[in-house]
Amino acid sequence: MHVAQSAISLHLNRLEKELGCSLVHRTPRGIVPTESGVRLASRARSVLTDIGTIAEEVRGIEAEPSGSVIVGMPTSLGIALTVPLAITIRRQYPLIRLRIAEGLSGHMSQWLLAGQLDLALVFGSNIISGISKELLAREHLNLVGAEGAEAVSSCSEMPVSALFDLPLILPGRPHGLREEVERAASRHGHRPNVVMEIDSLENIKSLVAERIGYTVLSARVAEHGSISARLKCRPIAEPRIERSIYLARSSKTPPSMAASSVTMVLSSLFAQSNRSLTDDIGA
After folding, report:
1. Predicted local distance difference test score (pLDDT) of residue 7
2. pTM for this one?
3. What is the largest CA-CA distance in the chain?
4. Distance (Å, whole) CA 281 – CA 219
5. Beta-bridge partners for 235
6. What's the mean pLDDT in 177-205?
7. Please, which residues bridge with residue 137 across strands?
8. 89 with 262: CB under 8 angstroms?
9. 3-state class of 96 per DSSP?
10. What is the distance between the alpha carbons of residues 31 and 45, in angstroms, rounded to a whole number?
11. pLDDT higher than 60, residue 193
């Protein structure tokens, strides 16, 4: 911060006196925020975000989109979307400073409410106060196995009830993909036969390619990357395991021009990907 420690301590002491509460716990090894300190930091981030948004609005609608945009990306989508998004933003909007924060889908809403993200991709339509959502895509999950493996040798749809006896390699909880499989199993009175938990989808695909087990993925993820040539997808039906992908943002503040531009790019990328998957299925 290029500010002397003594000056920071002075400002912090004045702020604590003004607010009438302790903002940090002081220990021999340093300081940690109190509950009041955490709340103040969260609100301060929102205020700073508002200031940045106001500054962009004042520059005028005609100005080229610029500024920082932080996008929350679930790991299961980051595999296929992070690089195309970064390339497109760099080419079309060179003044936008893009940051992509990958993590679990369940954490995205918390990060949005805390002001740590401008946009986030999330699964599920559950309503959360302070967050607005726009549907981008619905995707079906498939059984994925090594090319030639018995359970994926047929191209016909696989009854979901037959899925849960197979040796499955899945991410650990609370990964969104694992939760979808768990919910489907519970609806049919089963428990999935999870023989291995790996939190890296790329490593899961590699293990499946080596015939260690099967997994459940969307075609978008299964068909991305060099290992995909060694894998085969089989649709799951009766009923299908489906998940919805939404673009979420805070409903308390309007998006900046830069965030709106990133939103348009994400919508376009999903539209292109959906057309490609539809063409593949039709073929």
Report:
1. 84
2. 0.67
3. 71
4. 10
5. 142
6. 90
7. 245
8. yes
9. strand
10. 20
11. yes
Helix axis angle for 257-282 and 75-92, nearest 10°, is 120
Helix (H, G, I), strand (E, B) or coil at 124: coil
Rounded Cα distance between 166 and 169, Å, is: 10
Structure token pair of residue 33: 């925020």
Q: Are strands 168-170 and 194-197 parallel, antiparallel or unpaired?
A: parallel
Residue 27: alpha-carbon gap to chain centroid: 36
Q: How many whole angstroms separate alpha carbon 60 and alpha carbon 64? A: 9
Q: Buried b vs exposed e over 257-274: b needs ≥16 C-beta within 10 Å?
A: bbbebbbebbeebbeebe
Answer positive or negative: Cα dihedral of 266, 269, 274, 275: positive
Contacts of residue 278, defined as CB under 8 A and 6 or more positions apart, other chains included, come to none
Structure tokens, 212 = 């260690």
Q: Between the ranges 28-32, 57-61, 85-89, 105-109, where is the mean pLDDT highest?
A: 85-89
**Confidence (pLDDT) at 73:** 93
| DSSP one-letter code for 147 | T
The tokens describing 170, both together, are: 């899945």
pLDDT at 283 over 90: no
On the 0-12 / 13-18 / 19+ scale of CB atoms within 10 A, 230 is: middle
User: Considering only CA atoms, which of 102, 118, 114, 112 is closest in space to residue 68?
Assistant: 118
**Hey, what are 52's tokens?**
């940045």
- pLDDT per residue over 263-275, tens digit each? 999 999 988 866 5
Tell the residue number behind the tokens 């090319």, with chain if given: 147
Cα–Cα distance for residue pair 143/165, rounded to 1 Å: 12
